[in-house]
């Protein structure tokens, strides 16, 4: 859900923070709705939306061969319960969104993935706390976790939009 901040509220106001806290507490989880939407979105649309930003974000690492060990491999990222989720593969020097299962599955809550993306907590802590779980080929999943942890990238807020974007450095 994207909430725009009214112009009369400063982005760091106490009223805004309290209002968002109340919304988080009382609004139902968006995950079931996202699961239904995810199941009805065709894979070409997911590819169009996700592949270009992922390849741009990790372009330097891909060019340096950091992803070469993942050639032909598939890893699925899932919100607890299985939906929504996305399976990512690496072929011909490109990250690709594919349809189907992954050899490894990294599963967790939306909040855990957000914490990971924002780099607010060490990835190992998220796994040790069981907020994120690797299933299937754990060696493959840990390899990707370690690679992502070693790369320079961040989740940047878009001012006054309630949305974020990834930025590689």
Automatic annotation (TrEMBL):
Similarity annotation: Belongs to the UbiT family.
Pathway linked to the protein: Cofactor biosynthesis; ubiquinone biosynthesis
Function summary: Required for O(2)-independent ubiquinone (coenzyme Q) biosynthesis. Likely functions as an accessory factor.
Name of protein: Ubiquinone biosynthesis accessory factor UbiT
Entry keyword annotation includes Protein biosynthesis: no
Pfam families: SCP2
SCP2 domain: residues covered: 54-149
Gene3D superfamilies named among the record's database cross-references: SCP2 sterol-binding domain
UniProt keyword terms in alphabetical order: Ubiquinone biosynthesis
């Amino acid at each position: 859900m994207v909430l725009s901040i009214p112009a009369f509220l400063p982005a760091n106001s106490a009223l805004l923070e309290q209002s968002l806290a109340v919304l988080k507490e009382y609004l139902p989880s968006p995950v079931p709705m996202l699961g239904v939407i995810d199941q009805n979105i065709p894979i070409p649309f997911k590819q169009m939306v996700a592949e270009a930003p992922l390849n741009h974000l990790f372009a330097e690492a891909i060019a340096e061969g950091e992803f070469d060990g993942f050639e032909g491999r598939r890893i699925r990222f899932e919100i607890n319960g299985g939906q929504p989720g996305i399976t990512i593969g690496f072929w011909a020097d490109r990250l690709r969104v594919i349809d189907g299962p992954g050899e490894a599955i990294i599963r967790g809550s939306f909040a855990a993935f957000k914490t990971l993306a924002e780099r607010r907590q060490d990835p190992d802590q998220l796994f040790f706390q069981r907020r994120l779980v690797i299933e299937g080929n754990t060696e493959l999943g840990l390899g990707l976790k370690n690679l992502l942890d070693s790369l320079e990238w961040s989740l940047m807020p878009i001012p006054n939009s309630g949305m974020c974007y990834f930025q590689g450095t």
